[in-house]
């Protein structure tokens, strides 16, 4: 949800179309510089969150952060993630979603080592924060890490304080990186591989997006639910998977300011859910 007009406005927008959870940016996602949060805007956000009864609320990190690269922006990325965690914690958000970044030619192994070291450092430097860092799987474009399930497993294994770590699974990214979920059978197989790599309880969120591009295309192009190459069966499986009933799920599909597309996608997903008798 957009924070245009103030952070609290994202909550109002979500409430207006019946959301029970939302994801926001707490700052401009394409700039390093940011201002400190004002006490009044924090109070207004927290009060509006209570009034709108939206919970959990979580944020997405700046797209500039790259923990895997090891280039001149590495230390800047670590500082940027610390800022994201502290801002989210001040607002009372449950976690921040993070793309781990791209290794920029140094190789997957080096990228993973750098990512883990950076996350461990951020956790050490924010010891009082309750906000968790949630790693999002990626679509496989370029030299990005996080597109393979064993990447997620490596990160989980090597983070020292696991109570501060979790994962967000993006369905479009999963499909784009070569994991088929289009049938009940392939959904079960892929999610078995996923939960063999990371504990099921570490999956703290989902991004529900169909894909404009075919299986294994390594291209991140989101489509409306049931209108892309994934199709409705995968989303029906996920919406009825007992393991994830209480895990927040958000849309990152294209939309206009009136949120009409969100309303349609939410309705589609809710209709795919089949309550137990």
Gist?
This protein has 277 residues and is of the alpha/beta class.
How many runs of DSSP E, i.e. beta strands? 9
What structural category arises from helix and sheet content? alpha/beta
Shape: globular
Which range does the strand content fall in? 5-15%
Number of domains: 1
CATH homologous superfamily annotation: Divalent-metal-dependent TIM barrel enzymes
Mean pLDDT, nearest integer? 97
Please give the alpha-carbon distance between the first and last residues. Answer: 34 Å
What is the string of helix and strand elements? Answer: HEHEHEHEHEHHEEEHEH
Written account of the structure:
The protein has 277 residues and is α/β, with parallel strands linked by helices. The protein is 40% helix and 13% strand. The strands form two sheets. The chain has a seven-stranded parallel sheet with strand order 1-2-3-4-5-6-9. Strands 7-8 form a two-stranded antiparallel sheet. It is globular and about 45 Å long.
Task: Give structural attributes.
about 280 residues; globular; two-stranded antiparallel ribbon; seven-stranded parallel beta sheet; alpha/beta; single chain; TIM Barrel
């Amino acid at each position: 949800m957009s924070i245009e007009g103030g952070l609290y406005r994202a909550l109002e927008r979500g409430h207006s179309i019946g959301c029970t959870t939302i994801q926001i940016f707490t700052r401009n996602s394409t700039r390093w510089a940011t201002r400190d949060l004002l006490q009044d805007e924090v109070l207004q956000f927290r009060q509006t969150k209570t009034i709108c009864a939206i919970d959990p609320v979580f944020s997405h990190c700046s797209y500039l952060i790259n923990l895997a690269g090891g280039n001149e922006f590495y230390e800047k990325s670590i500082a940027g993630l610390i800022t994201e965690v502290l801002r989210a914690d001040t607002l009372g958000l449950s976690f921040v979603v993070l793309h781990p970044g791209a290794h920029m030619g140094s190789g997957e192994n080096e990228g993973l080592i750098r990512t883990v070291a950076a996350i461990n450092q951020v956790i050490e430097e924010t010891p009082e924060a309750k906000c968790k860092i949630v790693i999002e799987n990626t679509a496989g474009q370029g030299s990005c890490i996080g597109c393979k399930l064993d990447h997620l497993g490596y990160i989980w294994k090597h983070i020292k304080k696991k109570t501060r770590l979790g994962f967000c699974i993006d369905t479009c990214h999963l499909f784009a990186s070569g994991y088929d979920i289009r049938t009940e059978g392939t959904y079960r197989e892929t999610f078995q591989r996923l939960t063999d790599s990371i504990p099921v309880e570490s999956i703290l969120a989902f991004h529900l997006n169909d894909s404009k591009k075919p299986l294994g295309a390594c291209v991140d192009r989101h489509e409306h639910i049931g209108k892309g190459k994934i199709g409705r069966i995968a989303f029906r499986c996920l919406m009825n998977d007992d393991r994830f009933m209480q895990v927040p799920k958000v849309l990152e599909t294209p939309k206009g300011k009136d949120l009409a597309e969100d309303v349609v996608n939410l309705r589609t997903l809710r209709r795919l859910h089949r309550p137990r008798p």
